[in-house]
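Structure first, sequence second, as always.
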């Protein structure tokens, strides 16, 4: 009798193994995104759903510390796809800045997505009207090791400031918004596609403003760090925002582990661009994702699977 139970158990295990390899979903992909208050996480969830609905793969969006952490997770093979800023991808692939001792060798690009806009938020009554006014203030410079932290450091630099000149805190977007609302924080750097959920939450409860950058400082920043581009947050992007805000942005890109198969990444790329309407329904920032701009701002090697799709569409020769 015991032998019968053992044989039955073996048969069941083999059956489950065969289902996992064949008739069901062929692979379980993990997509590294960002915090729940940013743009990466909802879009990552949307892309995961598109993959599940239109390929033989399963996919899950994972909450992370965003760009920098995502590159490290990808390097270790803990995730399969990741969102990142173009500047952080550049550091990772070249082994510079925070990746000086740990370059990411298995990094391949799938697509450029949209502008990641630097938004420096504060309250109307804070007395802060310029980046220069952040000196001595309680300021969130992004989660430790994040792309936002790198952006904050570089922008402060062209204004002659360092983190040591502030009462710097390393907070997520959501925590930054909440602490400003509670009067426990004076300002925060948020780099994400606008409109951003955390800034929407702040605008709903607090008289807030977004700082414009001075034109000469924008030029100095772009000259020193050419992955930045000029950007404008149009008036009315957020409730209570009556004027355009002049700032800068970096590109967000979707990247993959280089060892994902050509077929897998081809299917991912095809399903993404043929179901963009589903992403737009989740977040309007997805309106910026277009096939004709899929390679804009990318300095990385394109994954062969994505390249195959772009060649079919005559985006890549």
């Amino acid at each position: 009798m015991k032998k019968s139970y053992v044989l039955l158990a073996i048969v069941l295990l083999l059956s489950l193994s065969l289902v996992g390899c064949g008739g069901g979903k062929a692979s379980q992909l993990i997509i590294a995104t960002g915090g729940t208050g940013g743009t990466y996480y909802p879009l990552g969830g949307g892309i995961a759903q598109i993959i599940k609905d239109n390929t033989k793969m399963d996919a899950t969006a994972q909450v992370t510390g965003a760009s920098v952490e995502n590159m490290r997770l990808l390097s270790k093979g803990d995730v399969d796809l990741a969102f990142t800023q173009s500047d952080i991808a550049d550091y990772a692939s070249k082994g510079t800045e925070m990746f000086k001792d740990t370059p990411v060798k298995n990094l391949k690009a799938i697509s450029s997505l949209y502008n990641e806009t630097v938004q420096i938020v504060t309250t109307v009554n804070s007395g802060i009207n310029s980046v220069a006014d952040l000196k001595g203030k309680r300021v969130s410079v992004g989660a430790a090791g994040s792309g936002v932290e790198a952006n904050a450091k570089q922008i402060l630099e062209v204004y002659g400031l360092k983190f040591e000149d502030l009462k710097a805190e390393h907070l997520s977007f959501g925590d930054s918004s909440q602490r400003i609302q509670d009067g426990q924080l004076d300002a925060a750097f948020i780099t994400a596609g606008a409109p951003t959920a955390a800034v929407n939450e702040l605008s709903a409860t607090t008289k807030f403003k977004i700082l414009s950058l001075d034109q000469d400082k924008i030029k100095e920043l772009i000259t020193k760090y050419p992955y930045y581009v000029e950007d404008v947050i149009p008036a009315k992007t957020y409730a209570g925002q009556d004027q355009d805000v002049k700032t800068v942005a970096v590109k967000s890109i979707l990247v993959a582990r280089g060892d994902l198969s050509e077929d897998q990444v081809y299917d991912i790329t095809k399903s993404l661009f043929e179901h963009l309407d589903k992403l737009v329904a989740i977040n309007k920032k997805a309106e910026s994702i277009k096939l004709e701009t899929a390679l804009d701002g990318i300095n990385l090697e394109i994954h062969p699977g994505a390249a195959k799709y772009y060649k079919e569409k005559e985006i890549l020769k």
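Margin note: The beta strands are 27-32, 57-62, 81-85, 107-123, 138-140, 167-169, 187-192, 208-210, 229-233, 245-257.
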